[in-house]
Every structure is written in C-alpha cells, then in structure tokens.
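Run log // design_07
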C-alpha cells in the first residue's frame, strides 16, 4: 500500500535543535524548513518549540508536511505549525525514534538533546549535517557531522546524498 500523494517516497529529514532557540537559530531553522518543503522533503522533529517550531513554521509556509514526535502523551503539546503530532510518551527517549525514522538529520544550534540526536544519527550511519551548535571531535578516526554554513547548503547536500542512496 502506498501513501496518498507519494509521501512514502519523499525524503524524510529530521531538523533537530534546542527548544529554547536563539532568534538567529530560529531564523535559520525556519528557512531550513521552508527549503526542505520546497525540495519535496517531509520534515520530522521533536514537535515542541524553538528550532522545532521554527522549522515547522517554514514547512507550513511552503505547503509542506511536518511530523512531530512529542515527548508526552498529549497531542495538544505539539507546536501550532505541525501537520502531524505523534505523542510517544517516551520523554527524551523519543530522540531515538525520531532519528531511526528519517533518512538524514540536520541540526541547528545545540543542546544536550540535540547532541544525543546527532550522536544517534552518526552511530546509525545517516547523513548528518550541523549548522552551528556543537563542534564534535571524532573519536578513533570515526566520521563526524558535516558542518555547513547555511540552510541552502544543508538542503543541497541532503537532497544529493539521499538521491545517491
């Protein structure tokens, strides 16, 4: 069975970042969400405020779809710009569910929760890009997130990497 409108074929991209984003992080996340939607990607996030809300606002501005994996058990806890709110009841453990569900991860800014999502993404071998935030040193010669300078660069690289898989 296929999803209506071919959504099952679209790239699933997580946008992760702090719930208490700075003004500049929110601006970057909103642009990132808009560009991902324009590129035909579905945007996944933790569903709350800050970077997550800003990315969803950008997605909605371009008529795209955003999905939020909420930490609690109430759909109403999700931000107002989500297309779909999924209450997991898992708290911070939702980070693993989020990262497992997507094809690639883009982080904007940094917090401990963001770092956990980036680490899980790298562990799973998913394309992982960072705009600002943590500067993670690779241990034992392992790969590390690719740092990018702008939402446009992140989307270009994400779309290229996903299409090559």
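design_07 sequence
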């Amino acid at each position: 069975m296929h999803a209506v409108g071919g959504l099952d074929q679209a790239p699933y991209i997580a946008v992760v970042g702090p719930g208490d984003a700075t003004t500049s992080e929110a601006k970057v996340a909103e642009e990132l969400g808009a560009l991902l939607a324009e590129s035909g990607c579905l945007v996944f996030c933790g569903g709350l405020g800050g970077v997550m809300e800003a990315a969803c606002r950008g997605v909605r501005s371009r008529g795209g779809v955003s999905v939020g994996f909420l930490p609690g058990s109430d759909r109403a806890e999700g931000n107002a710009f989500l297309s779909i709110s999924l209450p997991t009841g898992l708290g911070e453990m939702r980070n693993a569910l989020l990262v497992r569900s997507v094809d690639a991860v883009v982080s904007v800014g940094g917090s401990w929760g963001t770092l956990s999502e980036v680490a899980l993404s790298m562990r799973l071998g998913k394309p992982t890009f960072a705009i600002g935030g943590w500067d993670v040193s690779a241990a034992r010669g392992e790969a590390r997130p690719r740092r990018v300078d702008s939402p446009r660069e992140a989307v270009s690289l994400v779309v290229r990497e996903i299409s090559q898989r």
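The two ends are 22 Å apart (CA to CA).
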